[in-house]
Structures are given as C-alpha cells and as structure tokens.
Amino acid sequence: MPSFSHFFQTFISSKGLFLDATLLTLKLTIVSILIGIIFGLFFALLKISRIKILEYISNAYVFLVRGTPLIVQIFILYFGFSGIFLIPDFWAAALALAFHNGAYIAEIFRGTIQSVDKGQMEAGRSLGMTRGTAMRRIILPQAFRRALPPLGNQFIIGLKDSSLAAFISMNELFNVATTLGSNHFDEMTYLLIVAIYYLVLVALLTMIVSMLEKKLAISDR
Amino acid sequence: MPSFSHFFQTFISSKGLFLDATLLTLKLTIVSILIGIIFGLFFALLKISRIKILEYISNAYVFLVRGTPLIVQIFILYFGFSGIFLIPDFWAAALALAFHNGAYIAEIFRGTIQSVDKGQMEAGRSLGMTRGTAMRRIILPQAFRRALPPLGNQFIIGLKDSSLAAFISMNELFNVATTLGSNHFDEMTYLLIVAIYYLVLVALLTMIVSMLEKKLAISDR
Amino acid sequence: MNSREMIKIENLNKSFGSLHVLKDIDLSVYESEVVCLVGSSGSGKSTLLRCLNFLEKKDGGSIFIRGEEISPDTHNINDVRQTVGMVFQHFNLFPHKTVLENIIEAPIIVKKIPKSEAVDEARELLQKVGLEDKADVYPSKLSGGQKQRVAIARSLAMKPDIMLFDEPTSALDPELVGEVLTTMKELADEGMTMVVVTHEMGFAREVADSIVFMNDGKILEKNCPEEFFDNPKEERTKEFLKTTALK
Amino acid sequence: MNSREMIKIENLNKSFGSLHVLKDIDLSVYESEVVCLVGSSGSGKSTLLRCLNFLEKKDGGSIFIRGEEISPDTHNINDVRQTVGMVFQHFNLFPHKTVLENIIEAPIIVKKIPKSEAVDEARELLQKVGLEDKADVYPSKLSGGQKQRVAIARSLAMKPDIMLFDEPTSALDPELVGEVLTTMKELADEGMTMVVVTHEMGFAREVADSIVFMNDGKILEKNCPEEFFDNPKEERTKEFLKTTALK
Amino acid sequence: AQKDELSDGTKLIDKEEFIFAASGEFKPFSYLKDDLSMTGFDIEVGNAVGKELGLKPVQKRMKFKGLIEGIKTGRADAAVASHTINPDRAKHVAFSTPYYYSGPQIFTRPDSDIKTVDDLKGKEVAVAKGSTYADVAGKYTSNLKMYDSDITALKALSIGRHDAVITDFVTGKSSQQEGFKIKGQQLIERSEQAIVVPKDNPELLKRINMALQKLRDDGTLARISQKYFGQDITKKPE
Ligand SMILES: Nc1ncnc2c1ncn2[C@@H]1O[C@H](COP(=O)(O)OP(=O)(O)OP(=O)(O)O)[C@@H](O)[C@H]1O
Ligand SMILES: Nc1ncnc2c1ncn2[C@@H]1O[C@H](COP(=O)(O)OP(=O)(O)OP(=O)(O)O)[C@@H](O)[C@H]1O
Ligand SMILES: [Mg+2]
Ligand SMILES: [Mg+2]
C-alpha cells in the first residue's frame, strides 16, 4: 500500500491528466446513453408493436446483450464494425457502449410504457387518435417521465461500464490510471486515485438521481 | 466477418479448450458467489444491527463497491492482496469477484430480511426467543428463501462479470478467446465463439432461475 | 323524441375467448334520445358501449351509425370515433397536460383546427361545465367530480353526435356525484344523444328516455322509465330492482 | 374468582414520540380471571397488551407478574415472556415450518426440551384445538380459523401462566370466528388466566369475568359483564356500546 | 509475501520450481499452444534456464503490463517475456544479461506515407501498454493509443485504425506472415531484452546470469533462435 503523502502528491500531480480523462469518460457515457436511448426506444416500440417478427427482433437484441459480457460485446463491435466501415475510435467505443446500454434502456422503456394506464390509450383513441398518435402524444411523454429515474441509474452503470473502453484504447479514466501506473511502476497508487474519481462521480450522480426522483414523486399525478 | 464454415470448423476444433474454460468460469463464478453470500449476509446483518457504527461500515462497503467499476476493484484487490500475502491466482480472482458480488448480495439480503413480516420477529420473541435466535431460526430461513431468485440473477451477472478476471490472467472463457484469437491472428472468430458459450450458459441459468421462481411462487405462503 | 336513428345495432355478438359476453344484441338509439343501460356486474354493459365506439372488435352482427353500416374494413375507425364521444369511469385525463391542453389536444391534432380557435372553444366548454377557472391546472389538482366534468368537456370538444358514458360517477365520492349528473342532465336537455351505463337509478328515472336492462349478455327489457321502474315485465328485472333499492 | 394476583399494573405510561398512548394505567388480573379489553380503535388496547409482554418498553410505572416487579434491567425478559403467552391478530405462524414444527420450535430451542417429548406434547395440544390431522401440513394450507388455533397451541406449548390475545378473531371470515372462540372458551374453562382484546361482545359477555373499557389511553371502567353491558357507568361507555351494537 | 529461501539466499516461491511469467500474447516469443500452455522463444529460453538452475520450470501467464508489478509483488520468480532493458524499469526490478537483441520498428498499413520517425509527428500511434515502445513512440508523437497486447494493436492497425504501431520487428514480421495487412518501415533503434527478477533477490539474479552464460556458450540460445526466426538474434549485433 502506498504511503499517504506519496498518494497525496501523486493525486495532485496527476490531476490534469485525470481531469481530461474524466471529461472523456463523461463524454463517452453521455453519448453512449443518448444513443442508447434511441436504440432503447426503438426496440421498446418494436417489442410492444404487436407484430410478432418485430417482437422477436427486439427480444433477440435484449437476449444477445444480456446474455454476453460487456467486454465481449465491446471487442466484437470494435473489431467487427471496422470490418464493414471505419468510424473514429471515439464513436466506435460510444456505439459499442450504446449498443449495450440500449438493451437495458429498452427494458426500462418497455416497463414504463406498459406502466402507463391502459385507459390513456383508450381515451386517446376514443378522441379519434390513431394508435401511433396516441402513443406519441399521450403514452410516450408519460413513459419518458417515469423513465427518468431508472435512466439516471443506467447512466451511473454506464459510467462505470465505460471503464472497459480502456481495452479498446480510449484514454478514459481507467486507461489513464493503468497507463500511468505501468509507466511509473506504481499501479496501486493510480488505481486508488482513479477509484476516488469514480466514487466522486457516482456519488454526485446518485445525488442528482435521487433529487430527480423526489421531484418527480412530488409533482406526480 | 469470418465465413460460416471457417467459424464452424474453429468452433469444433477449439471445443476442448473452451469447455475447460467454461469449467473454470463456472468454478470462479460459483466460488465467488458462495463467498459473496457470506460477505453479503455478514454486511446485511451489520446493516440491520441497529448499531450505528456497524451500519456505517456496511454502508461504506456497499458504497465503495457500487461507486467504482468492477475492473478497478479487481485490479486493486489483485495487486493489493498480493502486497500483503500471496494467495493463489484463482483465489485472488475469486475473492475480488466475491468482494464485488458481496455488496450486491448484501443489498439482496437486506431487502428480503426486511420484507419478512415484522410479526414473525414478534411471534418469535413472544415465545421467549432472543433477537438473535429469532433472527437465526425464524427470519433468516424465510429471507434466504426469498433471496433465491435474486441470487440466481446475481449468479448470472457474476458469470458475465467473471470475464474481467481475464485481465488478471485467469484462463476463463474470455481470456481463452482473446488469447487464441491473438495466436491465430483471428480475434473475431474466437470472440463470436465465446459469445455463444456465454449465451448458452446464460440462457440455461435464466431458465433455471425462472423455474426456481415459479416453484417458490407455488409453494409460497 | 326525434325519429332519426343515430345508432342501430343488429344481432351483435362478442366473445372473449370462450366467454360469450354479448348475445344477439338488437338496439336502436334515436336522435336526442337518452338511453340508460342498467344491469348487474358482468352482464356486458361496458362491452356493448366499447363495441359502439369500436374499442372492442365485434365478432358478428352490424352496427349502423346514422344509417351507415360501420366496419373497420370499409371505414376509418378513427374518423367514426370522432362522431362518438366516450366518457370513462376513471376519467382517463392526460396527467401530463393541463385541463385546457387536455381539451384542445384532439381538436388540434386530430381535427387540425387552429390552436386559437381550439382554445376559444375549450374555454366555452369549460364554462359550460363550470370549470373556467381551472384551465391551467393539472388534473392531479382536481377533485374526482371536476375531473369527470373536464373529461366530458374534452369529449365534447370533438363535437360528437353521440356521447357514451360508462359509469361516469361510480368512481366518485358520493358528495361529488351530483355535480357530474347535473352536467350530464344539461347535456341531455340540449338534445345530445346519449347512452349511459349507470347505477344511479335516480338519474335514470329522471333523465332517461328509455332504460335498457341487460342480463347475461342479453337485452332483457327496454322500456320508458316509468314502466321500467314501476311495472317491470321480467322476473329478473324485478330482482335486479330489488337489489339496487337495497343499496 | 381466585384471589392470587397474576398481573398487577401500576401507573403505567407509554408514549410514541409525542403521542401519549397509555396514561396512568392501573389494573390487576387474578389467577384464572378472564379479562376482556374493549374500546375504540386507537385507544391503546394493543399497546397495553404489548407492554405486558414486553414487546413494547414502558416509559413509566410498574408491572408485576405473580407479585414480582419485572423490569428489563433486573430480569431476563425472554424468560418472563415464557410465562406470558401471546396470540396475534394475524396469527404470525412460521410459514417455513409445518404445524407441528411451529409448535415444537420454542420448547426445543428455548426451553431445551427433548424433541420426542416436545412432539408428544404438541400432538396433545393439536388434539385439544381439534387439529391433530394437520400436524404435517404447512400453515399456507390452513384456513384462518385453523391458523389461529395452531397459534394458540403454539403459545400453550410454552406452558404459560397467562395468555394474552390481541383481537384473535378480527382477521377471520365471520364463519370461522366461532371455532376460535370455542377454543378460547375451553381454555378459560380450564382456568387459564387470560387478557383478551376483542370486538366480540357476545364472547365478552359470556366468557369474561370482567370487562375493561379503554378510551384515549385511559381505563375508564372495569366491571363484571352484566353490569358493564346492562348498566354502564360512564357516558363514553354507553356511546361505545351503542356503536358496537350497530355492527 | 513469504517465499522459500534456499541455503545460498536465493528466494523462490517454491523451492523446487522456477516459476517464470510471460504474456502468451506476443507471438512468436510467447503464445499459446492448443492446450493453453505457452510456447515460443521466450518460453523455451525460460525452460532452458529453469533446467540449468536445477529447478522444475513452471510457466505462468500474465498480461504484459502486469508483469513488472507481478514480479514486484511476487506472483512469479522471474519474467522471461522480452522485456527491454531500460532505466525506468531498472529502478523497480533487476535485469539479467540480455538474452536477445532486437529493436522497435514502425509498422503501418501498406499504403501509408509514413516511412521514418520524422513522419510520425502528430500521427496516431498504437502501442502495448507498459511496453518500452510507448516511451519510444512518445518521443515522436503525443497521440498515443494504448492496448493490452502488441497483437491487438497490430490488428487494429490492420483493419484501418490508427496510423502506425511501434513494436518489435520480429513480432511485426510474423503478424505480416499471418496475413495482417501491415508493412514494416524504419527500424528505430536497437534494444536488449532480458529476464526480469525482483530487486530483493540478488542471488537468484546471479544464478540466472550464470545459467544464461552457460546456454550461450553451449549454443542452446542460438539453436532456439534459429528454430523460431531462422537467424540468431541472441548475439550482440556489431
Ligand atoms: N378484455 C377482456 N378480456 C376478457 N374478458 C373480458 C374483457 N372485458 C370484459 N370481460 C368479461 O366480459 C364480461 C362482461 O364484462 P363487462 O365489463 O362488459 O360487464 P359490465 O356489465 O360492464 O360489468 P360492470 O358493471 O362490473 O362494469 C365479464 O365477465 C368480464 O369479465
Ligand atoms: N409503534 C408505534 N409507533 C407510533 N405510534 C404507534 C405505534 N403503535 C401504536 N401507535 C399509536 O398508538 C395509538 C394506540 O395504538 P393501539 O394499537 O394500542 O390501539 P388499539 O386500541 O389497539 O387500536 P385498534 O383497535 O385499532 O387495534 C394509536 O394512535 C397508534 O397509531
Ligand atoms: Mg362495466
Ligand atoms: Mg390493536
């Protein structure tokens, strides 16, 4: 275990690099969650489309993502995508993470869409709206709102998962930590430092999510 | 993308290695979940002990594990443990995973213990049992039973997470896949093969868990 | 009573799986007629109403709206629904929209009416149901009775020719039932054609032009209120009236 | 009535936060006496019973069991509880154990009685409550009335000197109340000292030696059943009896 | 970490064994056979050294970048893993005498304009984490991408990612033979590769150096080199 003063000095001196890496980690997480929301919404709608084949496609996607480790998905998508068309590293990593997050977000949306009272759809339709219009104007806005807290949690999970992008050469927090660690032959200190960065980020996000939850609970119904 | 016949041939020829790796993956997962159950039970009991300091310790544990990526935990524990005393690699990996699983299992147990009707404790105490006896004989058996399905899910998560033990040189599924991939200069084929192994394992386990859930639901109350 | 036939149902049948819920229903509703549908729980009243609004698909038989036979194959059901308004037991207001937005939503989105026009009409309707001061409030802030009056206004905003009510007061606290029934009575007095499923026998007796008694998926009796309450023809009707009198 | 004092409560007080739930309670229960505690909801009946069994900690006053003052500081409360059995409204049977296991659990674990002996006694108790054929069944398979009789047997297995009942029949379907009351009556006839919180006025009148009426945390009246029902002293008691008669 | 100590002060994890580590991801220096045991140039050298020490050679696989940490923390007795001698590493671990001589080379895709180190300025260069090539590359560009193994970096290069990879010329050449679409460019510098031993174990270092000398003298090293490379890379070049 490193001594406290050594740890503290290293913490200070590595601040610049880690803050850059924090930004990259956040960028990667935000982008992958945003794209994941699009994937998620798309597959959630397939799932509730009542068209068997679309349902199967959606189920298969969720099954594939839930059935394999994220690191396997990242490697396959990173090297696999490239065989077809080449996108910049950042986007390759973001897409791989988004593909993963998307399945979990699809399940979140499916849940919140189905949690909206069936009477809402009937009311919309009884006013002459088509299924699609009622979904878009009535159901989805309510489902989105309810999805905010679980999406916040998925964001926190996604933040931690983004550490695996280190293995496809993203210079995010974990990669910076292990690279510095192996350069300075001092893995432990840098690992402990990066743990602190993650803890602070997760703690902040957790606070935000629980504030969000409270706010929604108050204004609900 | 590899051609199908190449993929199929590789699948067959690598079967032995992957089956060994599957065994190691399962061993690692089972051991880490079993130790995790011990950790989890211990910290869940701390949490509900009504002794503030023990509660804090339990909260801190859960916070540390939930607040940092698993890969960071694995690296810290693997190298950190080694600085103190040397345990075999398998046990270092298993302990690191158990430490991680333990926090999630602690939350599972806390939940199921608290879900047991308060009247059960009162009935036990009214019969002259001490808090401890009532906890051990009345509450915990019921809490355990309810914990089985979520523990099953944690097992599935743990199985996938064990892929990260590849980075501390366990020859589990993912490590075998990347190593063979890099030896044969053919990462993609082996990644796709290992994905299939994971999918089959997860699908089997999911079936078992949902059978378990049904069985418990039937015999419940 | 005007003699123009607004709704005509012929030989309507509907099953859920093996459960035969509507059995050979024949019923006509004339312009400005107020029909109250009564009957014990599970007798098929809601299902009949929902078939009229095409929220359920009928299995057999015909439904004519203003003389024209309607079928999902030949008609755009969404257009038909615009002429048939529906009010639900649980209001089903849109919780993410204010009262005013609830009312203007369908006219703007479905009928493509300009927003300013829709707002003006909505305010008139709110005045009519006595809630002009609640326009910018969210439904969660309303009492049950107020919610139901907003739901009625929302339905009326589509200018339907026929209004269907499915137990519009049975989710309300007793002291709030009156305000909703008053609104419905005013609507009836203005000549709206209405089909009302209700357990409020007082309302039925006072407002209905005819009462339809359903039992086990069949229409057992249709009569004017005086005859129905004071001189029921069927044995089942008598029993039913006895149980409702007890409540 | 035997004159030996089994329970003596002096000046008992109990608050939950700022809510003063028991106010200066004085009460004695003699050997073989059956005391029924009645009073409206929230008057503190359950709390009083729970204080007697030390499931709640009293704030002030004294509780004597068989002449000895009991306090958590000087006594092992777990030992005291063995002499005071308790039956709960919701039975609180252990769902993961069979009926027999429910009954033998405490004698074996707490009293360290040999298993074979505990089983013999349990079978006798089951016979007594008329459930000898249910020994190996899980509680989930029993009706509410059967559950409560098992709960009584489970309590009796610890050979308590006093039995406390907290609304033992109010979670039961009406047709199942009788079997539990019968069991309790038999217990009373055998000379068990009992304190029963109940809304079953018929039972109270027939079985109780005295009735205690609680109101707002105080004991307003203690009397024999005849006097209590036919000639209540307090105005509040009369009101209370009026509302229960309505039910 | 507690180790067994021999009479001459040599510390070993197990007094019967020589446990040496390599990555297994650095073909042809170390890679896996189909039974998952490692083979390759490094491994054969490690085996030969172990036998020469009179111990049972036991191989152990670790990610390359964890090797130095692993030796420091006692997860293996030594690393025979193509570690290039450099002063930074020498602060943390001890090096044996070199057992082969090599050098980093620039690899690019065949159609690349990059030929020499001067062309690397501002270009994206991928290297293996913890390798000395990261330092080498850092001299010419600041745009570095880190991978866990050289082969993964070369694979990424071959499918179109990054501008160049700097790695050992032998590794690059064999990847080329395996069909990676890459091309070797300038050989940057010469380097000496040696066995890594913990600093607190001078007796072991001494014995390893003696063993290596013996293997050099009796031609064993040269023979292993010929087997893998068709040339002798174990002699110091002129
Ligand atoms: N979507 C459905 N699927 C299956 N069965 C249904 C469905 N909707 C209604 N039913 C069944 O059809 C029968 C008639 O139901 P309906 O709701 O029309 O009765 P109702 O007369 O409105 O009763 P209530 O007064 O309780 O509202 C009932 O047995 C009901 O359980
Ligand atoms: N654990 C507790 N914490 C806070 N308040 C409590 C607690 N238990 C009971 N109370 C309050 O104490 C008061 C008396 O409760 P108690 O359960 O003794 O009444 P009761 O006479 O048994 O009523 P009921 O007939 O409804 O069972 C009530 O106002 C109740 O809300
Ligand atoms: Mg209905
Ligand atoms: Mg009570």
Automatic annotation (TrEMBL), chains A, B:
Q: How does the UniProt record describe the way this protein sits in the membrane?
A: Multi-pass membrane protein
Domain ABC transmembrane type-1: from-to ranges: 22-209
Task: Spell out where the chain crosses the membrane.
Answer: 28-48, 60-81, 190-212
Alphabetized, the UniProt keywords read:
Cell membrane, Membrane, Transmembrane, Transmembrane helix, Transport
**Which CDD domains does the protein's record reference?**
TM_PBP2 (cd06261)
| One Pfam family per UniProt | BPD_transp_1
Q: Tell me where it resides.
A: Cell membrane
The UniProt entry, under PANTHER family, shows: ABC TRANSPORTER MEMBRANE SPANNING PERMEASE-GLUTAMINE TRANSPORT (PTHR30614:SF46), MEMBRANE COMPONENT OF AMINO ACID ABC TRANSPORTER (PTHR30614)
Family per similarity comment: Belongs to the binding-protein-dependent transport system permease family.
What protein does this entry describe?
Cystine transporter permease
TrEMBL record, chains C, D:
Q: Which CDD domains would you find in this protein's record?
A: ABC_HisP_GlnQ
Which Gene Ontology MF annotations are present? ATP binding
Note whether Aminoacyl-tRNA synthetase occurs among the keywords: no
Residue ranges of domain ABC transporter in the record: 7-241
Alphabetical keyword list? ATP-binding, Nucleotide-binding, Transport
Q: Does the keyword Thylakoid apply?
A: no
Please give the name of this protein.
Polar amino acid ABC transporter ATP-binding protein
